[in-house]
Amino acid sequence: MDGTLIGIVAFASVIGLLAIRVPIAFALAGVATVGTFVIFAFRTGAFAPERAYRPTSSLVFSNSFDLIHSYDLSMIPLFVALGHIAYRAEITTAIYHAARVWLAKVPGGVAMASVVGCGGFSAITGSSIACASTMGRICSPEMLSMGYDKRLATASVAAGGTLGSLIPPSVLFIIYGIFTETSISALFLAGVLPGLLSLAGFLLVIWIWVKQKPGDAPAYTGEITASERRSAAIAAWPAVALFVIIVGGIYGGFFTATEAAAISVSLAVAIGFIQRKLTLRGLWEALRETCIQTTSIFLIAAGAKIFVAFIALTGVAPDIVQAVTDAELSPVVLMAAIAGIYLLLGMFLDPIGIMVLTLPLMIPLIETYGFDLIWFGVVVIKLLEIGLITPPVGLNVFVISSVVGPSVPIDRIFSGILRFLSIDVIVLIIIMAVPWLSLAIPGSM
């Protein structure tokens, strides 16, 4: 049978299974296993299943075994654990409280503090959904109680939560680095400036929003003393220290990304116990949640690895590269088409699913056109970040909706998110048009 046809049918099958809510790990691994079996069974022309059992099992088990034993994959449980431990030790929330104090007198200050808090949370943990869930419980109820417009109080946190995908450390960057065999340390550093640009863009949206509609963000009437500002800033030192270890340690060449993760986890535990904000029960709950979340990610990664090997076996990727080459698409048209595909998929699928499903086809195209894989990684993560707040299945929006409950209908959150989506698209265009923004820091190592 024609390998290209099998590959196309496999992609369509995976998308169909995901549409009916089959877990992505099982969809990828199941389709890849069946497809591999079919290829080997028909290799001689006639159907001979006895010739397919051994090579199929070899492909499935060897690829999943090699991935699980990957050194780079050990970063995922470490950074996931760091996020859970830092939250229970009140390290991540200290950034929000500091921003809350310093921005209290600024119009829309609490919404801005929420975005800054999301940025700080993202600088310690690598999960956008965890960021939105955690900060949503803290920020949105406070803004609603202060009389903030419901759209602003929820959309600002939903958008701010997406920063976890771009600001290092990022689980998505780790998975991208493993599957494209690029430096994860370089990817982390490449996400710093685009992440800060996104954060600044969200702050600008809030400022313009409140400037146009002052009633949507009631002014703070209390008094904030210099002593309170100083105390709040000092209380945020653990989060700053962890960020410096992760980004500064990697940039300075003192640590690898994995070593930075391990050191940061140890330091977060030590700080939590020294400050008496982390208990043994809290540590146990953090580790338990880490195991649950990591297992889910590992299963997806293993299924994706099997699927990538199957796609290589079909030969569909070279055929697509040849078709695009024959079409003589310009680099601009190619990137616009890729962005359109990711934005479309982002309306229906989760970020990890989109990435592992598309990378086997996208990377050969990118290499053929001579684009930098580090820069392309930032573009992909930014596109996935936009997908987290894109209707109808913006995961971060649903997370915030579950936090605030029926008091804020989900359509109200989506109506508020449109302003943040507009700035996201502008930032995406800047990242795509100015590769230096992504490559400056890793290039200067």
TrEMBL record:
InterPro entries: DctM, TRAP_DctM. It is a multi-pass membrane protein. It is found in: Cell inner membrane. Keywords: Cell inner membrane, Cell membrane, Membrane, Transmembrane, Transmembrane helix, Transport. GO terms for molecular function: transmembrane transporter activity. The keyword Iron does not apply. The keyword Membrane applies. Its main location: membrane. GO terms for cellular component: plasma membrane. Residues 11-437 form the TRAP C4-dicarboxylate transport system permease DctM subunit domain. It holds the Pfam family DctM. The chain crosses the membrane at residues 29-49, 152-179, 185-210, 231-251, 257-274, 295-317, 329-349, 361-383, 389-408, 420-441. Part of the tripartite ATP-independent periplasmic (TRAP) transport system. Belongs to the TRAP transporter large permease family. The complex comprises the extracytoplasmic solute receptor protein and the two transmembrane proteins. NCBIfam families: dctM. This is TRAP transporter large permease protein. It comes from Palleronia salina.
